[in-house]
Amino acid sequence: MHVISEINLAIIGLGYVGLPLAVEFAKQREVLGFDINRARIDALRAGHDSTLEVADDEMREAKGLRYSADPQELAACNVFIVTVPTPIDEHKRPDLTPLIKASETIGKVLKKGDIVIYESTVYPGATEEDCVPVLEKFSGLKFNVDFYAGYSPERINPGDKEHRVSTIKKVTSGSTPEVAEVIDQLYRSIIVAGTHKAKSIRIAEAAKVIENTQRDLNIALMNELSVLFARLDIDTLAVLEAAGTKWNFLPFRPGLVGGHCIGVDPYYLTDKAEKVGYIPQVILAGRRINDNMGRYVARTTIKKMVQNKIDLSTATVGVLGLTFKENCPDIRNSKVIDIIREFQDFGIRVVATDPYADPAELAHEYPGVEIGIVDADHPVDALVAAVAHREYATLSSGDIKNLLKSPGAVVADVKGLFDPDQLKQAGICAWRL
Q: What are its GO biological-process terms (predicted)?
């Protein structure tokens, strides 16, 4: 292979994954940050990251980072790292559109000796079977002769200020042994936690997709136990606290499984499995359980409202939190929406609030969701604490009581934020997963 004497790096896609990566590299080298969203580019040029993954002062430290939405500027680069989303469609099938479009854009400027590295979560084989042919088509170059590829799965945890890009061990891989070493050295220059060089791109792809599949299945088990223990009138979290005293008991908890990773990645693996003639059993069973939890939360709350003689036709339910996880503005694949839609299907008015989510983004992503106020002046007949934002976690039983219309109002503590004994002493009808 032609050895790159000097790396000119471009990061394609400046979201939750791409921007922190670009900022980290830009502390050491010149980096071109590319995104097709011009509004996003303008905001980053102004020095602010709306995802809150990178602080403003850290943005200023990235002296080598420049931003562009012009594909032609990519022509000056010779190493491209692709960090675009890989969602699923309405049928829960992989949607590779952003990945294919990014590959087309790179293919148009690809030169001999260039390297394209993918970080987006995919199924085993996607890089070489889906992306490389696009690069070949639009560049007219031949893979592993004229240009090369690699895969290094992202491990960003949105909202996590402890586990950052540089402090999380990185899996790397390349399409030839020589390229694999170049890619590994590139990442090793910023990853203080070290790297793990996988033997092939397909192994690296598979490693990424099972990381989140494993978490998904463990949470699914906790969710199923929660449903069972509710029928047995046993507090699930109290059971987990007791079981957790054993040294090797895994500390998973029940809850909503949303976001762009855990609730999505298993479908990439199962889709590939079906294409090679294997129908996965355990993985899909876990997905069905987790995908049903929003409906379960809403229906359980409605049942308790009916038992407390609350008129559903005039009732208002307040929902605290709309993002997929606490203390971050990411609303992608938020399962809180499933709770809201289920209430709405019963004709119940829902008012939702979130201190982090962008109202314009919510209106675009989830039309029909009423964003309002839930406070002492706007009390509700039922309250769903859906996301563990720090603003909600500090609420006292008295604070919660002030948000409720009557003693019969119901509180659904989805995240187990509040002390059930204190809520009971305050006369609040509450339940939790």
A: polysaccharide biosynthetic process
Tell which residue, 86, 65, 74, has the closest CA to residue 19. 65
Residue 74: pLDDT over 60: yes
**Amino acid identity at 291:** D
Which residues does 267 contact at the CB level (< 8 Å), separation at least 6? 88, 92, 93, 94, 287
Q: Do domains 4-199 and 223-432 have the same CATH topology?
A: yes
The full DSSP string for 365-386 is HSTTPEE---BTTB-BSEEEE-
Q: What are phi and psi of 414, to 5 degrees?
A: -60, -40
Q: Are strands 370-371 and 410-413 parallel, antiparallel or unpaired?
A: unpaired
174-216 per-position pLDDT tens digit:
999 999 999 999 999 999 999 999 999 999 999 999 999 999 9
Options 3.40.50.720, 3.40.50.1110, 3.90.226.10, 3.10.150.10; CATH for 4-199 is: 3.40.50.720
- Mean pLDDT score across all residues of the chain: 93
Token pair for residue 254?
């029940």
The Cα 7–Cα 114 span in angstroms is: 9
Active-site residue flag, 131 = no
Domain definitions of the chain by residue range:
4-199, 223-432
Spatial distance between the Cα atoms of 20 and 23, rounded to a whole number of angstroms = 5
Residue 396 scores a pLDDT above 70: yes
User: What is the distance between the alpha carbons of residues 429 and 305, in angstroms, rounded to a whole number?
Assistant: 9
- SS3 string of 228-297? HHHHCCCCHHHHHHHHCCCCCCCCCCCCCCCCCCCCCHHHHHHHHHHHCCCCCCHHHHHHHHHHCHHHHH
**Residue 3: pLDDT band with limits 50, 70, 90:** low
**Amino acid symbol at 388:** A
Which listed residue (77, 131, 261, 429) is catalytic?
Answer: 261
Residue 211 vs residues 17, 70, 132, 177, 192: alpha-carbon distances, Å: 17, 35, 24, 25, 21
Pair type for strands 382-385 and 316-320: parallel
Whether CATH 3.40.190.10 fits 223-432: no
